[in-house]
Amino acid sequence: MKEAILKVKNLDVDLDNERILSNLSFKVKKGDVFIILGPNGAGKTVLLKTLLGLLSYEGKIEWKKGIKMSYVPQRLPFIKDIPMSVLEFFELKGADENEAGRFLKAVGLEEKDLLDRRIGDLSSGQFQRILIGWALVGNPQVLIFDEPFSGIDVSGIEPIYSLLEQLAKKGLTILLVSHELNIVYRFATSVLCLNKETLCQGSPKEILNPKNLSKLYKGQVKFYSHSHD
Amino acid sequence: MISQFALSIVVGIFVGAIAGYLGSLMLTKRMALVGDALGHVALPGVGLALLLGINISLMAFLFLAVGILLIWALEIKTSLPTEALVGVVFVTSLAIGFLIIPGADLEAALIGDISQVSLAMAITSIVLCIFTFAVINKIYSGLILSSISPDLAEIEGVKAKKYNFIYLILIAVVVALGIRVTGSLLVGALVILPAATARNLSRNLKQYAYGSIFFGVISSVLGILLFKMTDLPAGPLIILSAGFFFLISLLFKK
Asked: From the candidates A16, A82, A93, which should be mutated to test the interface with B, based on the most B CB atoms within 10 A?
């Protein structure tokens, strides 16, 4: 039995007097790829932010003592407006040139001069990789991602997906929000279906069935089929 | 004896530099017009200073501090958007300013007058500029990170409330210093134009920050030299110089 690094019990979150999350309880174990699945407005991002300590809540959130986490938000819409090199972006997190180069390598970016490139000139796939590399600075044990595949075209998803998979194999715990059922099915070790409250919870094979999905998306999702290889 | 002209130029260089540097932050935080609005908020203070013959920048700063507190209090009380409240406070201040500023001094209040700088005044401005520079330098990367993502900044330990408070004070100080050079109408331009020019030309933050300082300085110097040659008011000449560099930068935009 692997140890739990996060225990959540009876978690309620209100924003502007409206209940966004209600009575959530779950555990995340070391090395898990824990995916939070749900429709728009389900409170997925709010849950991540609450886990990160950015929002106030009622109930219990217990991280294992001394655990280091890193967060990559869904979008950084303004970063391209600021003239900033990739190296300077890493420096904001306290990494020097050597470290920045090392983390870029870890996410498969070995292009020369990449550190000097302007962030605004990168492709969205490159930028997403850089964000993941950035999240690795400081050697966190937990990576928390909000929709890491949004805004990336289909051909760009696969490499990022396998990158995350590699990181998980190295023992990192990954928490991510996604609505890509395909990714969830292949990648998750544990899924939490969320729409303000927990609708289902377990391994993808147990719970990702048409009944649960139509409950989660209120019938807005067409029957979902997949194939194994 | 240091000549009056030399004092004007030195003050212009320091104030131009600090305005450019702070402007580079304001532009990334999408607060480009805040300097403009605050310039107007300071006008009654400038008026009182002229009436009583006391330090313009000091009174401007006091009125800015009151204005910012007022905006902050109104925001809590009315929950109107900040932007609307800034608008309310700045037009009201402008009206009060016009009433209390003696006619003969109105021009100096609106477009600045750097031709009569005393040695003591120059030294105070320079010390304040250096101090402000040190503080901006210290919080620069934290503020950049928070303009990229407030959440990331908070996770990295940037105390948003504290930083924003310091940042607002810095804006008030720089606007108060700038009012002496370009007046309350034009101080917003002194803050934003050099940064906008530098942004067109830079590939990274370092170039951007130093470029903003550079264009702040050369706009001031060119404007004051033109003032010496033409005897037209220095404030508008400085801003026109800054605008000229901005136009040129468009040709080389990266």
From this structure: A82
Q: B39-95, pLDDT tens digit by residue?
A: 999 999 998 888 888 888 899 999 999 998 898 888 888 878 878 888 899 899 999
CA distance A80 to chain B (A): 9
What's the CA gap between A206 and A222, in Å, rounded?
A: 19
Mark residue A196 as left, alpha or beta (left: phi above 0; alpha: psi -120 to 50; beta: remaining): left
Residue appearing with tokens 């940064």: B195
Q: Is the pLDDT of residue A229 over 50?
A: no
How would you classify the pairing of strands A190-195 and A69-72?
A: unpaired
State the Cα angle at A63 between A9 and A77, rounded to 5°: 100
Residue A144 three-state SS: strand
Test A83 with B204 for CB contact under 8 angstroms: yes
Q: Which residues in chain A touch residue B147, judged by CB atoms under 8 angstroms apart?
A: 78, 82
- Residues B70 and B130: their CA atoms lie apart, in Å, by 28
Output the CA angle B17-B22-B23, nearest 5 degrees.
Answer: 95
Domain with B189 in it: 4-251
CATH of the domain at B244: 1.10.3470.10
Contact criterion met (CB below 8 Å) for B194 and B215: yes
Which tokens hold the place of A116?
């000097």
Q: How far apart are CA B179 and CA B105, in angstroms?
A: 14
Residue A69 to residue A49: CA distance in whole angstroms: 12
Predicted structure pTM score: 0.87
Inter-chain touch A82–B147, beta carbons under 8 Å: yes
Q: How many domains does chain B have?
A: 1
Q: CA-CA distance, A186 to A133, in Å (whole number)?
A: 22
Residue B54 one-letter amino acid: I
What domains, with CATH codes, occur in chain A? 1-67+141-153+171-229 (3.40.50.300), 77-140 (no CATH)
- Report the interhelical angle of B4-28 vs B119-148 (nearest 10°): 10
